[in-house]
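Sanity check record (used in CI):
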Amino acid sequence: MDLQHWLNEALANHEKWTADYGTFTPHSSLQVDPALFGSALAELQDRLRDNYPFFHPRYAGQMLKPPHPAAVVGYLSAMLINPNNHALDGGPATAAMEREVVSDLATMFGYGDQHLGHLTSSGTIANLEALFVARSLHPTRGVAYSSEAHYTHSRMCGVLGIEGFPVAVDGLGRIDLDALEDLLKTGKVGTVVVTPGTTALGAIEPVHLVLDVARRYDARVHVDGAYGGFFTLLAGTDLAPEPWEAIGSCDSVVVDPHKHGLQPYGCGAVLFRDPSVGRFYLHDSPYTYFTSDEMHLGEISLECSRAGAAAAGLWLTLRLLPLTRDGLGEVLAAGRRAAVRWASIIRESDSLELYQEPELDIVTYFPRTDPLTLSAVDAASHRVMETGMNAAVDPIFLSVARASTTAFAARHPEVEADADGARVLRSVLMKPESEDYLDTLHARVLSLL
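Expected output for Aminotransferase class V-fold PLP-dependent enzyme:
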């Protein structure tokens, strides 16, 4: 895709639009010396080189990749106008786009036409809003989440002044249903967070089973799909459908288009199955909502100013890569295929051991050391990561995840527990190019052992 061509198109269209309103003289206070601009820009470009190559499949560290060119062009097109999606007055066009993409997301998750939702600046804020509504509905009851859930939930419970209850996980890093039910029996929990795709291991928690347990105790269910939510597109083809189909019966769901939705940071989203929860957002702004009697997005959001450009970038992307298995789903499927194939290669390796079978696009593994102890595995994993990322020639970029002694014992009892847990190597293959680059990546990891 010729990004330069489409960026030029966006700039040309912006100039045509602005010309419709007549010419004016820009204020002298905004003028800068072209030579100074060039110098400052050169410094910026030089400083930006102090980044890891998120765009390249040799980067398999964290959940980072560049946005799709369509997202860049869509974002830039709206950014030049700089609409604010807080009120319809601040961004009529992008507010309409936001409603459209939120409707698309709601359809993907199985929500009906009567839903409530909006984009946010991050998954953290999206989860905060879901828990804010949970507290409003159950002010005296807390929130349960697995010990492998993202730390945002315990943090946001603190922000909201409600009690958070970490729940033990099973041998695959998913919320333990028996432990959850024991907690629900106490009556202390009003909302259960379930994560279809944990950020450390990519483990798919059983949304359908959690939903059954929670409903028996009059508890809400919130789905943290910030990382894994878009894998709903693979349900019934590449993935077992039950957890994903159950999302449509859950009370709220969060997803991050700036992860698997190919968008630039920050673009999160929160959706509620019951639109009546909008009553908890009610407020009055005598100078903001004045040109339309329609619902303004700021009336159903904890955030006020939000970039309309984020809606435009997502809208344009979904016009080209719709929320279908053959559209955006194929992008996710490529990364998952890479993870599954790499797991198969690691199982046949004499030098590496698979820590846990991948369910999505995260692979966890560790060097086979002699002696095979937690301390040796920890040191070897860290050394491979550090050596790979600091190599002057042919670097690769991995990450590590810390596994507890208990978690290691459940998966690899053959590893001697001579330390308090160990780091294992972790690779996120969320770029579809990882599928073709996998053999090169694997060979480079082996060379570092």
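The two ends are 38 Å apart (CA to CA). If this sentence no longer matches the regenerated tokens, the check is flagged for review.
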